[in-house]
Design goal:
213 residues, alpha+beta, Immunoglobulin-like, 2 domains, 37% strand, globular
């Protein structure tokens, strides 16, 4: 049975006949009860599920980071769903069932703040990855106090190391220690920035694969 929360003209929660009502992020919604599907495994459905699974396998280890990186796109959806939508549109290659992530086209952060200039990632010390970049403070809204955001994604283990609010833009470098289990693995590395008051982020830049020493 449905419950009217704001009078006859307001939204309602629950089920009335074939209509379900509710509220999400303060937005009242109504939807029809899903019809039963006689064949839930049609080629189109399987294709879509496989694409979704591919995107989720990449983004799920980055969930906490994505909440920061895509927060400005969390409009009537979660930051994770915004990242999912971007990944599905722009960063999946291959044919069913062999879809894969095109890491160079993926974004783990999306925003208008100026990004990293001439950034690199390398591993010359066992268990460490060294990120470097040039200080481009004064380029648009870029400030010396902006904080670095880093992702090191291990596709073999489907795990990631992330840094949120690391070194400042003016510092020009950050060393990240990775788990010993990552030794000799290839890590896909990304860099971005957030401003000091945490209101803006930059697009992430893909720095390529780094083999952990």
């Amino acid at each position: 049975m449905g419950k009217i929360s704001q009078g006859i003209l307001g939204g309602f929660s629950g089920k009335v006949g074939t209509v379900i009502g509710g509220s999400w992020k303060g937005i009242d919604y109504m939807r029809s009860v899903a019809a039963s599907v006689s064949n839930p495994r049609t080629p189109a459905q399987m294709d879509q599920r496989t694409r979704f699974a591919t995107a989720i396998s990449f983004l799920q280890p980055l969930t906490s980071f994505i909440r920061v990186g895509f927060k400005n796109y969390a409009v009537k959806m979660s930051a994770f769903n915004a990242a999912m939508a971007y990944t599905l549109r722009n960063a999946i290659l291959g044919d069913y069932p062999d879809y894969f992530i095109n890491y160079a086209d993926a974004l783990v952060s999306r925003g208008s703040l100026p990004g990293a200039l001439n950034a690199t990632a390398a591993s010359t010390v066992p268990g460490q990855v060294n990120f470097t970049w040039e200080d481009n403070s004064g380029d648009g809204a870029a400030l010396a106090t902006d904080q670095v955001l880093l992702v090191l994604y291990n596709p073999l283990k489907k795990q990631a190391v992330t840094v949120i609010g690391g070194s400042t833009r003016s510092a020009g470098s950050q060393v990240v220690t990775v788990p010993s289990a990552f030794a000799s693995d290839e890590l896909n590395c990304y860099i971005a920035f957030q401003n000091e008051n945490l209101s803006e982020v930059s697009n992430s830049t893909y720095l390529g694969e780094v083999v952990v020493s």
